[in-house]
Amino acid sequence: MIGIVMAGGKGSRMSLAGEKLLLKYKKPIVLHVIDALVNSKCFSKILAITSSNSPKTKTLLEENNVDLFNTPGDGYVEDLNLVLKSLNDFVLITSADLPFLDGDIIKNIVNQCNSENIWTTILVTKKFLESLHLSSNYWLDFENQQCCYTGISLVNAKNILTLENISEKFIIIDDKRIAFNLNTKQDYDLLSTA
Fold first, then answer.
1. Are the CB atoms for 125 and 147 separated by under 8 Å?
2. Is the CB of residue 71 less than 8 Å from the CB of residue 100?
3. pLDDT tens readout for residues 160-180
4. 89 phi-psi bin (left φ>0, alpha ψ -120 to 50, beta other)
5. Which pTM value belongs to this model?
6. How distant, in Å, are the alpha carbons of 30, 42, 121 from that of 112?
7. Among 10, 73, 77, 147, which residue is least crowded by beta carbons within 10 Å?
């Protein structure tokens, strides 16, 4: 299995002068995510997906000997599609802005997923997210609950030709380690109190 960390975005919703993934929570946020994947011991390879949108993040990852896959930075879906077309394996995809992510929750997610499914997306419930004083603009109804995407998916890349018309399965895991996603300055301010 390959671990993919999406680390090439602009982080425009944060309205920062610098790059979002370099924000620190003891160390740069992106390194927490890389360490979580390494510590899970679930992956034969870990790739950070970078672009020209985040040159300092790319430099930090290079300095920390992280394998990189550079994309044009055309958008999340476009860049991810490019990466998945180049792989022939089962992959875990995570966003790079999950400061509480750790190896144990990664193992838990991997163990819950069926490798026969082409795409499994991990959700948290709106109720749980709000209990952490967080919010999201991206909701869907699943199992009679409003849910939010965590930025984590498991994908059988061998069976994907394009990201269009893929049958997506969902799993709800209400856990702070995957719910706390840094999308706004308010989220980052909450980090020190969480």
1. yes
2. no
3. 765 666 788 999 999 999 998
4. beta
5. 0.88
6. 24, 13, 11
7. 77
Residue 27 to residues 22, 87, 96, 128, 150: CA-CA distances in angstroms?
Answer: 8, 30, 13, 26, 21
**Rounded to the nearest 5°, which phi and psi values hold at 17?**
-75, -35
Between CA 153 and CA 159, with CA 157 as vertex, the angle to 5 degrees is 120
Helices 29-40, 103-112: inter-axial angle, 10-degree rounding = 60
Please name the residue that has the structure tokens 């840094």. Answer: 182
Which domains occur in the chain, in start order? Answer: 2-191 (3.90.550.10)
Instruction: Please write the tens of the pLDDT for every residue from 135-159.
Output: 787 789 999 999 999 999 999 887 7
Two structure tokens written together for 102: 């750790």
Give the whole-angstrom CA distance, residue 152 versus residue 86: 19
Angle at 43 between CA 49 and CA 119, to 5 degrees: 70
How far apart, in Å, are the Cα atoms of 168 and each of 66, 117, 123, 164? 29, 8, 12, 11
Contacts of 12 (CB under 8 A, 6+ apart): none
